[in-house]
Design goal:
- The chain has about 625 residues and is α/β, with parallel strands linked by helices.
- The protein has three domains: about 5-75 and about 235-445, Zn peptidases (Aminopeptidase); about 90-230, Glucose Oxidase, domain 1; about 450-625, no CATH class.
- About 40% of the residues lie in helices and about 20% in strands.
- The chain contains 22 helices and 19 strands.
- Strands 1-11-13-12-14-17-15-16 form an eight-stranded mixed β-sheet, sandwiched between helices. A seven-stranded mixed β-sheet has the order 5-4-10-6-7-8-9. A two-stranded antiparallel sheet has the order 2-3.
- Strand 2 (about 70-75) and strand 3 form a beta hairpin.
- Helix 9 runs antiparallel to helix 11 and helix 12 packs antiparallel against helix 13.
- The protein is globular.
- The N and C termini lie far apart (about 65 Å).
Length: about 625
Amino acid sequence: MICLSPLTKIIGVMLREISHYNIHKLLGVVTSHYRVPGSDDMVNVGVKLSDWLRDQGIEVRVTYFEVDGEIEYLGFKTPIAWNPIRGSIEITKPKSVELHRFSKSPTTIMTYSPSGLVEAEVVYVGPGNSRKYFESKNVNEKVVLAYGTPWISYRLAAEYGAAGFMYFSRRTRVDHGVPYASTALRRKDLEKCKIPAVSISRSSAERIINLIDKGHRVVVKIDVETRVGGVARVPIVEAYIEGSGNPEHEILLTAHLCHPAPSANDNASGVAAVAEGIRALNTLINSGKLPRPRLSIRAIWTAEYLGYLAYVHKVGADNLRDRVVHVVNLDMVGGSDIKTGSTLTLYRPPIPNISPTTYAIERGFEIVTRDSEGLVGSLKVMRSDISPYAPGSDHDIFNALRIPSVMIITWPDRYYHTDLDRIENLDLDVIAKCAALSISSAICDYSVDKLGLYFSKIFMDLMHRLGTEFVDIRHRVVSEVMRKSISECSLRYKDLSTDRVIESIKVIGDLMGMDIERDVDLDELVRELGLAKYRDVMNRKIRTKYDVIYTTLSVYEKLPISDRDHLPEIIDELGFKLGSLPVLLKLADGGSVEQFVKMFIAEYGKESVDKLPQYLEYLVKANLIELV
């Protein structure tokens, strides 16, 4: 007879209640709306979601915040009020071919594009994200084709007098998918950026480029109609289940509600998982099959980043820090290893934000993904991974506020940010398990004494990722950051025995021939990383001047024009790690650049670390941080 843990039992009960029918119905509702912040459908989908939750007997509250391209929430400027109406792109010369139409591919119109009808010759400028790509080309009154950071390339095309703009992505995993891209226009941009902007598939772009390479003059016709201007509302939908023991403290579940239609995995899947999970829990509590959780559970659906910053602005950061114990962010939780090529992944918080509830969700994750005996549902063993912190979604905001936050995601997804992100590519079983996981880990209590074992597990995982055959500076930096995080954690959790935890990690270090109690000194750090010329900078203290996080767009806009052309190179060099920097800088606020660099290495290793000092210089010029 198999003895099930309390968490296994809870997950099993949840999975028996969770309805695939409800999940599919919710997916249909969400994906049928073009839900971009500032659009009418963003409001409409919020109404539909809140009505469904009320029909299920859930306590729901809907509030709104305004966007107009000028209003800011915690330094984050809102987009313009904007609605797409119609759009198309076709080649008219040398031979007439329709490429894409908004009614078939809703990602054809770049979000926040102005209206425009233009028929003109195409000029291919490569990435087009720097002036050097335009200086040798005549794009005046022509249509620019580019693949670089779209909102940069678009602005430069408008600056150089182009009549229209086409974007394609070289990173999409399917060459026939039309990418989701944005102009990211704000109100102040509308005077200078008036040209229509469309996205085309990589296969369409290659057709055009091949024709140009063969000496053909390629002419395209872009026809875009949008409605721009005024003030729009964006919903914040909240569902709430009150706790029985400490109701003033809560677990927060987040799933962003936005993106163009259909965007099924990103993020109709997360919206449906949280909604059906809340519904299932409420039903089980009312029927007596599950007890009311000790902590309250709050779910919030709104616009990615923007909506959660508006929420923080409304309720207050200090209020959230006092109230919220942990955040579970569900973003793209419906991909499968077969259809989308995805791995179900749990991303931990940054090391300084590790907590007992992080341990609880990791245990639940292991149960639902390695259920080879069918204890909680199907016998399916899912391809899965538990990884160090990665940025890119709403957990970033709460981690920057020092609230422990994890992200559950199916990644990568071959249809990510294209018009092919559709319901038929999703796995409802994966969504159901993510729903059960997020709710169950919020219900099941884990005591602080488990945290010591958990730190040891994380330390071992990080060592294995770095390799255990030989020890270098990366291993020692990880041990230093871990040790300091354990000490900080003991201040929050009085029952945590720091000495015992350090001793368990020290045993692992001894087996590897590493003294974990010896810090990496500054001279060794700069020598090993090739940062000798930045030694003085490493001693300086970081003071952040932004509220919670900043965007790359805000860095670009605040930089002197002479520095903007160099930013895309750093964007490409740092890759996905770029998004972690606003969070890590907040966690290092008041500490030295050396501490920040070590925190970065502990999460991501040495790759790209030589770009950090230069990037910090840009942040200083953009008035987002100061080094003192």
